[in-house]
C-alpha cells in the first residue's frame, strides 16, 4: 500500500480560516480535509494518507526557508511513497507554498511530490510547471473537484512507479 502525505494550508487542514494566517507548522496523523474526500480515489491506487502536514499562509510567508526546510525534514523522517501539496484551488498564497515545498522535496529527496491548484494561480504555475507536476483543479466552489482529486491520485501513482507521465501530464496537469 502506498503511503501518502498531504501538505495543507490552515484552511484545508481545518486549523483556521482565511484570516488565521499565522497558524504554525503542524501535523495530524489522520486524514483531514480533502484527504477524506479523496478516500475513494486513494483506494483505486491502493494508497492511504498517513499524515497531513500544514502551515498557515502568513506563517509560511514570514518563515519561508524554515518552513520548507522543516517540511522537507519531516517528509524524510516519515518516508512516504509520495507527497501531495494541495488542492490549493485559487488560493494564491497556498499555491505558492505548495509549489515551493513540492519542488524542494523533489530536489532534496528521492520522494516524488506534486502540487495541485486552479488556473487562477498563473504566476506560480508559470514558474513551476516545468519543474514539478501541477495537477489542474477547479477554483474554490468550482465544478470538477472529484475529477481533480482522482487525477491527483493517478499522477501520484505514476510518479511512484516511475512511469512515463507525459501523456497523463498532458491530460491533467499544467504544461
Brief account:
The chain has helices spanning 34-37, 39-44, 57-62, 64-78, 92-108, 122-128, 145-160, 166-172; strands at 2-8, 26-28, 47-54, 82-85, 113-117, 133-136. It is α/β, with parallel strands linked by helices.
How is the quaternary structure best described?
Answer: single chain
Total beta-strand segments: 6
**Could you say which overall geometry the principal axes of the C-alpha atoms support?**
globular
Helix content: 40-55%
Structural class: alpha/beta
What is the helix tally? 8
Average pLDDT, rounded to a whole number, is 97
| Main β sheet profile | 6 strands, mixed
Main attributes of the structure:
six-stranded mixed sheet, globular, 175 residues, alpha/beta
Q: What does this entry look like structurally?
A:
The protein is globular. The N and C termini lie far apart (29 Å). Strand 5 (113-117), helix 6 and strand 6 form a beta-alpha-beta unit. The protein is an alpha/beta fold and 175 residues long. It has helices at residues 34-37, 39-44, 57-62, 64-78, 92-108, 122-128, 145-160, 166-172, and strands spanning 2-8, 26-28, 47-54, 82-85, 113-117, 133-136. The model has no long low-confidence stretch (mean pLDDT 97). A six-stranded mixed sheet has the order 2-3-1-4-5-6, with helices on both faces.
Amino acid at each position: 500500500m502506498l503511503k501518502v502525505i498531504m501538505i495543507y494550508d490552515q484552511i484545508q487542514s481545518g486549523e483556521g480560516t482565511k484570516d488565521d494566517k499565522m497558524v504554525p507548522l503542524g501535523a495530524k496523523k489522520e486524514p483531514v480535509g480533502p484527504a477524506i474526500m479523496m478516500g475513494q480515489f486513494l483506494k483505486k491506487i491502493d494508497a492511504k494518507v498517513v499524515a497531513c502536514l500544514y502551515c498557515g499562509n502568513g506563517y509560511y510567508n514570514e518563515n519561508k526557508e524554515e518552513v520548507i526546510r522543516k517540511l522537507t525534514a519531516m517528509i524524510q523522517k516519515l518516508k512516504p511513497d509520495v507527497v501531495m501539496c494541495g488542492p490549493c484551488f485559487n488560493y494564491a498564497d497556498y499555491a505558492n507554498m505548495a509549489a515551493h515545498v513540492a519542488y524542494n522535496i523533489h530536489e532534496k529527496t528521492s520522494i516524488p511530490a506534486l502540487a495541485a491548484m486552479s488556473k487562477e494561480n498563473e504566476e506560480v504555475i508559470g514558474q513551476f510547471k516545468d519543474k514539478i507536476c501541477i495537477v489542474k483543479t477547479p477554483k474554490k466552489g468550482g465544478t470538477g473537484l472529484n475529477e481533480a482529486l482522482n487525477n491527483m491520485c493517478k499522477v501520484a501513482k505514476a510518479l511512484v512507479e516511475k512511469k512515463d507521465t507525459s501523456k497523463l501530464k498532458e491530460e491533467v496537469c499544467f504544461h
